[in-house]
Design brief:
The structure is a single chain. The chain is 9% helix and 49% strand. The protein is mainly beta and 181 residues long. An 8-stranded mixed β-barrel has the order 1-3-2-4-6-10-11-12. Strands 5-8-7-9 form a 4-stranded antiparallel sheet, covered by helices on one side. A hairpin with a 2-residue loop joins strand 11 and strand 12.
């Protein structure tokens, strides 16, 4: 389970592009890397030995992004007031949603109409604002687990590491876990 790997100090690489740049959910993978230096978790689309499958659910302004809940966990973020939820749709199919609640674009009313039965949700409204030491780079990542029917969360800080890729120096954005409630 991903949530059991998320300890203070753990860095998450490759995840931001799936959460903040992708238009649709991505059925991807993650793997824990721990050796010399700090441990980290790498997210990707490609399957390989030692990787665990996960669905990465993106955030979109003014939308309710959702995906089928299968056997895999679903991770989403960057939450600063939105809602992460698991629910059954009209046909009884289990789904997971990231509900935008941004001022001027809020989907709270539409979510109220959509959430029919067996709803489990994490409303992150006020969580970052009330987190001691929060910065403009602080947010919440949430993990929905269909096996336990729970949603867990961690507080993260967004950062950048230099990366040499395709013959050029670039910056890779990562999340670092700063608190595990």
């Amino acid at each position: 389970m991903l949530s059991s790997l998320l300890t203070v100090g753990t860095k998450l690489y490759g995840l931001r592009k799936f959460l903040m740049e992708s238009r649709e959910p991505t059925n991807g993978f993650y793997r824990l890397v721990s050796g010399m230096g700090p441990r980290y978790i790498q997210f990707s689309e490609g399957a390989a030995e030692g990787k665990t499958s996960i669905t990465m659910l993106p955030y979109r302004v003014g939308q309710i992004k959702n995906t089928l809940m299968q056997a895999d966990e679903v991770i989403s973020g960057e939450f600063t007031g939105c809602v992460m939820a698991m629910y059954n749709d009209d046909g009884g199919t289990r789904r997971c949603a990231h509900v935008c609640t941004q001022d001027g674009y809020s989907q709270r009313d539409a979510w109220g109409e959509l959430a029919k039965t067996n709803v489990v949700q994490l409303d992150t409204r006020g969580m970052v604002a009330n987190f001691h030491g929060a910065t403009l780079n602080t947010s919440v990542l949430a993990i929905a687990n269909p096996a336990t029917n729970t949603i867990s969360h961690v507080f993260v800080e967004r950062g950048h590491d230099p990366l040499f890729k395709n013959g050029a120096n670039t910056m890779e954005t990562y999340y670092q876990v700063i608190s595990v409630p």
